[in-house]
Amino acid sequence: MRQTDATLEVRGLTRRFGEKVAVDDVSFTVEPGRMTGFVGANGAGKTSTMRMIMGVLQIHGGDVIWDGRPITPADRSRFGYMPEERGLYPKQGILDQLCYLGQLRGMSRGDAAKEATRLLERFGLADRVKDKLESLSLGNQQRVQITASLLHGPTALILDEPFSGLDPVAVDSMVDLLRDRLRQGVPVLFSSHQLDLVDRLCDSLVVLSDGKVMAAGDANDLRNAGPTRYRIVTAPDAGWLRDVPGVTVLDVDGPRAVLELAEGTREPLLKRAADRGLTEFAPIVPSLSEIYREVTR
Amino acid sequence: MTATDRYPQTLAPAPDGPPVPPSPVRHPWLVVTTREIMVKLTDKSFVISTVVTLAMIAASVIIGSVVGNRSSDFTVGTSQAEAAVVAEASTEVVTEGGDTLELTEFDSEDALRTAVLDGDVDAGLVAGDDGWVLLGGTEVDTDLAAALTTAVSESVLAANAEAAGTTLDELTAGSTVTTEYLDPDADRGALAFVVGFVFAFLFYMAAIVFGMTIANSVLEEKQNRVVEILATAIPIRQLLYGKVLGNSLLAFAQILLYCVVGLTAVNLTGLAGDIGWILSASGWFIAFFVVGFTALAAVWAVLGSLASRSEDLQSNTGPIITVIMVALFVGLFAEGIWLDVASFVPVVSSVAMPIRMLAGDVAPWQGIVSLALTAVAAYGLLRLGERIYQRAVMQGGTALTWRQALKLQA
C-alpha cells in the first residue's frame, strides 16, 4: 500500500554564514520509497541543508521542490524531522508531549496517543509512557525523539544523525520502522557518520564536502561507477600476472592479487590462470565508505 | 480553498501500520494555549501557591472582621455606695460599644485594691476627698477608662450643678457637636486604600509570576531545541500567540478567583456594608489587568527568546520588572495630577485607573479611553515582539540584545 509517491528535490540550494558559503549550489533528489544516505565530514553542510529543507534556516539561493512544486509550510508540517540538536520537553511526560506534537500536526489527541503508544511499544518503552523525559537514559530519549518524528505518519522523513547514540538493537528497531514508511513510498533522507550503517541501509547516496555535492545517485551505480577491479588467487604465487599484457596489477600479496583488466583480456587471462592453480576470481564491489573516501579525498 | 479541501481528513491508524498523514491543524495557537494551561494546572507548586494565597485572602478578611468586632467583658469593683452608682451609670456607655460591664462590691477599699492587684476585677473605682481614683493593675482598657471617666464627670457635674441651683441639661445646652458629611463616600477612605493596595499588589504579583512563566516557557523550548521541531509543524508566531493567550487566561482566572473569594469573604463577614462600589472598581481592575498583562506578555516572551540560559533572564528582565514596580508604587503613593496622568499611561494605568475609580467618581469615558490606549500598546508590543521572537528563538548560542535580534535574519 503506497500512500505517498512524491519526490523531494533540492535545486541549487545555497546558504552563506557571513563570508563563508556553507552550502554551495547543492542539488539532489530523494526518491519516493528510497533510503537516501547523506554523508560528509563535520561542517560539510549536511545539517544546514536539512534545516533549509525543513524551513528553519533561511535559504539564500535555490529551491526545495516537493511533488513537482515549491514546498509550502503545510507540506513541511507533514514531514517528519529529527534535528541534529535533539530537543523535547525534559520535564513533561513522554506520552503527553508526543500527543502535543501530534496535535500540532493536526492529529486528534486520541489518534496521537494510540500511535505514540504503538511506536513506544516497538521501542520497548511501553511501561515508561508516563515518565518524564529527563528520567530516561540518553538512548531512550533518542527513541522518544524518533517516535516524535514518525508519529504523524510523515510524507517524508528528514533525519539528522538518527542513529547516533543508539545501540544495535535500537538501530534495528529503527530500521524496521523506517522500512514500514519506505514501503509506503515515503522518501527518507538521513545523515550519518557511521559509514558501515550507510552502506548497509541506503539505496541512494549523496556525498557532501565543503558545501558541495561530490557524488550523488543510486548506491549500486556509485559502487560500479569506477573501473571494475578483480580479486584473483592463484597458488602458490600470483607474481606471474605482472607479465600478462592488458592486465594492470594493483597489488600482489603471495597468491592473492588485485587487478584491473583491459577490454577483452578476461577470457584469455582465465584460461592461462586455470593452468596456474586458479582458486578464486571475483569482481570487487567497493563499499560506500571506500567511495566516500575516494570522492572526498 | 481551505486546508480541508486539499488534504484528506485524518483516518484511524491501521492496526499494523502508521496513520495516514493528517491535514494541518486549523488553530495551532489553540493547541499551544491548551498545553500552556494544562502544564501549569498540573504543576504542583502552582496549584499549592494558589490555594495558599486563597486561604490567606479569606483568613485575612475573617481575622480583620473578628478583630474589628471583638467585644470585651469588663468587671469593675467598688467599695462605696456612691462609686457603685457612678459605675452603674457607665454601664450604658460600655454596652453601646458592644462590650459588657459587671459590677462587684467589696467591703473595704483594701479588699478592692487586693482584688484589682490579683486581677479578679479589671478596675476599681474609688471616690476620694479631692476627686475620684481609678484603680488598675498594670493597665486599664482605654474604652473602660473613658466610660468610667465620663460617668464620673457627669455625676460630679450634675452634683455641682444642683449645688449651684441649676441642672446638668441647662449647663450643657447647645454644646452638642454633630458631624455632617458633605461627601457621603468619604467614609470609604480607609477601605478604599486597602482595596487599592490589594489591586496594586495583585497586579504586581501576577504580572511577575505569569510573566516569568512565559519567559521560562519560551526559554525552555529554545534551550532544549524543541522549537526547531515546533517551527516545522506550525508558524512560529502561532506559538507566541498561544503562549501569550494561555498565560494571560491563567493570570486572569487566578485574579478573578482571588477577587471572588476576597469579595465573598468581605460580604459574608459584613466588613463593608455595601460592596457595590468595590465590585464595580474590581470589574474595571480585571478589564485593565487583562489588557495590561497582554501588553507585558509579549515583552516577557521576547525576553525569553533573547536569553540562552535561565541566568540571562535574571539580568535582562530588569527593565520590565522596573515598569511593574512603578505601576505598584504609583498605585500606592501617587496623588492628584500625578495619579491622573498615570491612569492614562499603558500598563501603569492598570493599577492607577482602578484606584482612581475607588477613590471617587471617574467618568466612564476616562476608563474606556485609558483601556483603549493600553489595548493599542498591547497590539503594538505584540507585533514588535512577534518580529523579534521569530528571529531570536531559533538562534542558539549566546544571549542577544533587542537590537541584535532585530538585525538577525530569519
UniProtKB/TrEMBL annotation, chain A:
Top-level taxon in the UniProt lineage: Bacteria
Transport in keyword set: yes
Domain ABC transporter: 8-235
UniProt signal peptide: none
Keywords: ATP-binding, Nucleotide-binding, Transport
GO molecular function: ATP binding
SUPFAM superfamilies linked: P-loop containing nucleoside triphosphate hydrolases
Gene3D superfamilies hit by this protein: P-loop containing nucleotide triphosphate hydrolases
Family matches, as SMART domains: AAA (SM00382)
Pfam families: ABC_tran, DrrA1-3_C
InterPro entries cross-referenced by the UniProt entry: AAA+_ATPase, ABC_transporter-like_ATP-bd, DrrA1/2-like_C, P-loop_NTPase
Family: Belongs to the ABC transporter superfamily.
Record protein name field: ABC transporter ATP-binding protein
Automatic annotation (TrEMBL), chain B:
Keyword Transmembrane: yes
Subcellular location: Membrane
Alphabetical UniProt keywords: Membrane, Transmembrane, Transmembrane helix
Pfam families xref list: ABC2_membrane_3 (PF12698)
Regions that span the bilayer: 45-67, 190-215, 249-272, 284-307, 319-339, 363-382
ABC-2 type transporter transmembrane domain: residues covered: 44-380
Protein origin, superkingdom: Bacteria
Predominant location category: membrane
Disordered, as annotated region: 1-24
Biased composition (Pro residues): 15-24
Membrane topology value: Multi-pass membrane protein
InterPro entries xref list: ABC2_TM (IPR013525)
The name this protein goes by in its record: ABC transporter permease
